[in-house]
């Protein structure tokens, strides 16, 4: 069993997650589910906001309104387990 760094297509407990809802087997309840995606502000969102605040204050709200600045957290709709995060 090759356990090298190239695990892109191996079936591990952490599935491949994209920015959209993903069809996966839940590592927690082992059901075939389509994940719920919850957008959450991450550290980069706040850093970006601080940076914009220094440059142009009215722009400070942009990162909070932009999906690409947020983490996309996947949750199982069946058992509500946290599955993973997709980051841009
Ligand atoms: Zn589950």
Can you give a write-up of this model?
This protein has 88 residues and is an alpha+beta fold. It contains two helices and five strands. Helices cover 19% and strands 26% of the residues. It starts with 22 loop residues before the first strand and ends with a strand. The chain has one domain (23-86).
Mean pLDDT metric:
82
Give the strand order of the largest sheet, numbering strands 1, 2, ... along the chain. 3-4-5
How many structural domains does the protein architecture include? 1
Question: What is the makeup of the main sheet?
Answer: 3 strands, antiparallel
Structural class: alpha+beta
- Outline the low-pLDDT stretches: 7-12
Bound molecules: zinc ion
Please outline what is shown here:
The chain is an alpha+beta fold. The chain has helices at 43-55, 62-65; strands at 23-25, 32-34, 36-41, 70-75, 82-86.
Which characteristics define this entry?
single chain, three-stranded antiparallel beta sheet, two-stranded antiparallel sheet, 19% helix, binds zinc ion
């Amino acid at each position: 069993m090759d356990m090298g760094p190239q695990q892109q297509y191996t079936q591990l407990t952490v599935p491949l997650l994209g920015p959209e809802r993903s069809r996966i087997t839940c590592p927690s309840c082992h059901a075939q589910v389509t994940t719920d995606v919850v957008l959450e502000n991450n550290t980069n969102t706040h850093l970006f906001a601080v940076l914009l605040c220094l440059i142009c204050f009215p722009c400070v709200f942009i990162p909070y309104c932009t999906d690409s600045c947020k983490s996309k957290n996947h949750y199982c709709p069946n058992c509500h387990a946290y599955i993973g995060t997709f980051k841009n």
